[in-house]
C-alpha cells in the first residue's frame, strides 16, 4: 500500500553458537554455512523490492545478516544498540539444554538460572523498554516508508506482541522464530496490522 508505514522484521541467520546449542545474548559468533546460505536466499527474495531504510541490531550476527541483504537492496545497514538481544550475564555461552534462560531447562538448574539472571543479566523490564523505545524512534524517523529491521529471537517476541497490542511481558513464550524468517506489519489508521508472521517460505527450495 502506498503512503503507509511498513515495518519488516527479519531474524538473523543461524550461527555456530546456535548449532552448538549455546546461549547467545550479547556474546557473538559467526554465521554458520547454513546461515550464510539462508542469508543469500533472503537477499535474493528481497532483491528488486523497494525498501527505504535498513537497520540492524549492532551485534555481529545481525549486522552480517543485514549486510548480505543490504547488498541485494542497495542499502547499508544502520547499527542500533537498542535492538540487541537480551544480555544474559554469566549464562552467556552456557548450554541451552541445561541453562535455558526461560526456565524450561532441568528443574535442578532453575534456581541457579534465575539467580544468575537477576544478579548479572539484563532485567526484563529494562529489555522491553529499550527495545520498544528504539523501535519507536526508528518508526518516527520514517513515516510512510518501508523499513527493515534485522533482529533477534527475543526482540521478535517483544515486538510481535507490542504491534498486536498483546502482553509484552509474555515475550518469552512467543516463538519459535525461524532464522531469516520474515514478519511484516503495516500501520493503518493508527493501528498496526500483521501482514505475515515468521514466514520462512523463501528459504525452501
Write the layout of secondary structure elements.
Elements: E1 5-11, H1 16-19, H2 33-46, E2 53-57, H3 60-73, E3 78-80, H4 96-99, H5 110-120, H6 124-141, E4 146-151, H7 153-163, E5 182-188, E6 191-199
Parallel strand pairs: 1-4, 2-3, 2-4
Antiparallel strand pairs: 1-5, 5-6
GO cellular component, one term: cytoplasm
Protein name: Phosphoglycerate mutase
Organism: Pelolinea submarina
Main beta-sheet annotation: 6 strands, mixed
Give the CATH H-level superfamily of the largest domain. Answer: Phosphoglycerate mutase-like
Separation of the first and last Cα atoms = 28 Å
Strand content: 15-25%
Kindly give the count of domains: 2
Derived structural class:
alpha/beta
3D structure, described in words:
- This protein is an alpha/beta fold and 205 residues long.
- The chain has 2 domains: 163 residues, Phosphoglycerate mutase-like (Rossmann fold); 34 residues, no CATH class.
- It is built from 7 helices and 6 strands.
- The chain has a 6-stranded mixed beta sheet with strand order 3-2-4-1-5-6, sandwiched between helices.
- The model has no long low-confidence stretch (mean pLDDT 95).
Please summarize what this structure is.
The chain has 205 residues and is α/β, with parallel strands linked by helices. It has helices spanning 16-19, 33-46, 60-73, 96-99, 110-120, 124-141, 153-163, and strands spanning 5-11, 53-57, 78-80, 146-151, 182-188, 191-199.
